[in-house]
């Protein structure tokens, strides 16, 4: 994953962080915040298909001690447009009924495309080894649901916008490592956010992404609704061999 060109671009497109976070909170401030609402929320099929969700790589930046970050709000001081992520975990061994008591870890990059817990290397020059933003763990309720409060992810060279997920059973046995993709095209959240400060020039779309390009059934594409002013809502059903 080559990130040098992307990291250079950060020097000419720094986000005004107070403005972004205030934009997430002030729904009625239409003079300063875009009110454009998602009109294309995605067409993933995982919610109605009882097949195991695709397995994907954890990537080079997995959470080092996930049990230390049991929390629903994973923002941890990072600025960006507010996003609430709702993941429903289902058991394919029980006709895709809700899987209660499953442990779910999530992590993703910040608005500038950087991960916490890593950095100071060729993969990511910005050093965030001592912080733990945008990482968290929750346990599913009786409906198989976990909810995380976060920010809309940015992007970096070679990858489409995405969120990493690792699901375990109640005993801590790994059931599924996967990733969540975002709908693309006119009217989607990806288009509205427009890559934050740096835009989408050089962006890798799902069809060319080395993880999502083979997801022809669109099982990994979440439904994403909302707006910059009100915040975004992501929802997806992840089917695991429980």
Features:
single chain, about 240 residues, mainly beta, Protocatechuate 3,4-Dioxygenase, subunit A, five-stranded mixed sheet, four-stranded antiparallel sheet, about 25% strand, globular
What this model shows, in words?
- With 242 residues, the protein is mostly beta strands.
- The protein is built from three helices and nine strands.
- The strands form two sheets. Strands 1, 2, 5, 8 and 9 form a five-stranded mixed sheet that branches. It has a four-stranded antiparallel sheet with strand order 4-3-6-7, with no helix packed on it.
Strand elements, count: 9
Which architecture does the CATH hierarchy give at level 2?
Sandwich
The third-level CATH topology is: Protocatechuate 3,4-Dioxygenase, subunit A
Please summarize the sheet with the most strands: 5 strands, mixed
Q: Quaternary status of these chains?
A: single chain
Task: Provide a compact summary of the structure.
With 242 residues, the chain is mainly beta.
Q: Could you give the topology of this structure?
A:
Blueprint: H1 4-10, H2 17-25, E1 82-91, E2 97-98, E3 103-107, E4 135-139, E5 145-151, E6 162-168, E7 174-181, H3 189-193, E8 223-227, E9 231-240
Parallel strand pairs: 1-9
Antiparallel strand pairs: 1-2, 1-5, 3-4, 3-6, 6-7, 8-9
């Amino acid at each position: 994953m080559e990130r040098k060109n992307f990291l250079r671009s950060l020097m000419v497109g720094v986000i005004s962080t107070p403005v972004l976070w205030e934009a997430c909170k002030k729904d009625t401030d239409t003079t300063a915040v875009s009110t454009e609402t998602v009109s294309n929320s995605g067409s993933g099929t995982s919610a109605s298909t009882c097949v195991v969700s695709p397995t994907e790589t954890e990537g080079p930046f997995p959470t080092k001690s996930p049990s230390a970050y049991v929390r629903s709000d994973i923002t941890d001081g990072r600025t960006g447009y507010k996003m609430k992520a709702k993941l429903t975990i289902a058991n394919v061994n029980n006709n895709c009924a809700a899987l209660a008591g499953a442990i779910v870890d999530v992590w993703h990059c910040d608005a500038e495309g950087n991960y916490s817990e890593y950095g100071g290397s060729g993969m990511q020059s910005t050093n965030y080894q001592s912080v733990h933003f945008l990482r968290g763990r929750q346990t599913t309720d009786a409906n198989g649901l976990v909810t995380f409060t976060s920010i809309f992810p940015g992007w970096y060279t070679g990858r489409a916008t995405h969120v990493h997920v690792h699901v375990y059973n109640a005993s801590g046995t790994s059931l599924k490592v996967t990733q969540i993709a975002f709908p693309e095209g006119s009217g989607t959240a990806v288009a509205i956010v427009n890559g934050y400060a740096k835009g989408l020039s050089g962006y890798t779309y799902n069809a060319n992404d080395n993880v999502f390009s083979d997801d022809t059934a669109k099982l990994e594409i979440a439904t994403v609704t909302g707006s910059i002013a009100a915040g975004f809502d992501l929802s997806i059903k992840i089917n695991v061999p429980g």
